[in-house]
Amino acid sequence: MEFTEKLLSEIRFDSTVVILDILIPCILSLIFGGIIGFQREKADRPAGLRTHALVCLGSTVFTLISYLGFSSGGTADPTRIAAGIVTGIGFIGAGVIFRQGSLIRGVTTAASIWTVASIGMALGVKLYYLAILVTILGFLTLSILKYFEDRIIRLPDYSLKIITAESFDDLDKITGPIEKMSVNIKSKKYELDRETNKKIFIINLHSKDPEFSTKIIKELSKFKEIEEITIN
């Protein structure tokens, strides 16, 4: 009985504290993290809406534990959990970085995960204006700056023309080796030349690899079904 009374006395429910100090930061973390994650999801990146929302929420919760649980006194250092978030989030970010051919992919997504962790920490200590500002700037950086980057710092354009027999219809057999070479495929189409009864596959793409032309010709030449390869 004494244990029960002691337990109930420690479980105090203050609706104002729960709403202002816990519920609102947690809900906002899901929203703000989800905004950044939505942009990554739309760009078809390895970490999307749910991952960013959960990272932001987790950072908020750990910061709330540090802010509310260890800042009331005692010898515990309330900043240790926050420092652990900064260090630990690097492991999650490293998980989305991978090498594809000669290119390294996922670095921007790793940076966005790191950013939503900082947003979560800001929400955990009630710096709402900072969290809003970083969310807006982060979203604009990922979306609008990408627009200018594609137009100012353009990757080399290639038009790949492949001629095969009329019976050949396995486009994946052609695009498979190409996609492994770290390229951005803009469009794919094929047409049938009635005069020669040949199929013509045309693939427009970007590539940073200066040796792309040599590599792709060497790779596609392995297929007997391919009769001619032209790169412009």
What does this entry look like structurally?
The chain is of the alpha+beta class. It folds into 2 domains: 15-152, no CATH class; 157-231, 2-Layer Sandwich (Alpha-Beta Plaits). The chain contains 8 helices and 6 strands. It has helices at residues 2-10, 15-42, 49-69, 79-95, 107-124, 128-152, 171-179, 212-220; strands at residues 98-100, 103-105, 157-165, 183-193, 198-207, 226-231. It has a 4-stranded antiparallel β-sheet with strand order 4-5-3-6, with helices on one face. A hairpin with a 4-residue loop joins strand 4 (183-193) and strand 5 (198-207). The longest helix is centred in the N-terminal third of the chain and has 28 residues, at 15-42. The chain is elongated and about 90 Å long. The termini are far apart. The mean pLDDT is 76.
| Helical segment count | 8
**How much helix, percentage-wise, in residues?**
55-70%
Unreliable runs: none
Broad structural category: alpha+beta
Tell me the number of strands: 6
Summed up:
The chain has helices at 2-10, 15-42, 49-69, 79-95, 107-124, 128-152, 171-179, 212-220, and strands spanning 98-100, 103-105, 157-165, 183-193, 198-207, 226-231. The chain is an alpha+beta fold. α2 runs parallel beside α6 and α5 (107-124) runs antiparallel to α6.
